[in-house]
User: What shape does this take?
Amino acid sequence: MPRKTLETLSEPMFYVLMALRHGTLCGSEIVQWIDRRTSHRVALGPGTLYTILPKLAEAGMIRET
Assistant: This one.
């Protein structure tokens, strides 16, 4: 059975949402926040981040400002 879009959040998706909860951040600020928060355990590259952001926006979880 195919997985529904955003039926479950991956760990990087969760941390992106948590980072954005603290205010408007650019991509590098999101990556830095996640890096600090996870003690360098979750490494989020630009390819992953910029794949996650449109998915979260399409789901109505975030919006671009």
Observations:
- Residues 8 and 14 are 10 Å apart (CA to CA).
- The chain has a mean pLDDT of 92.
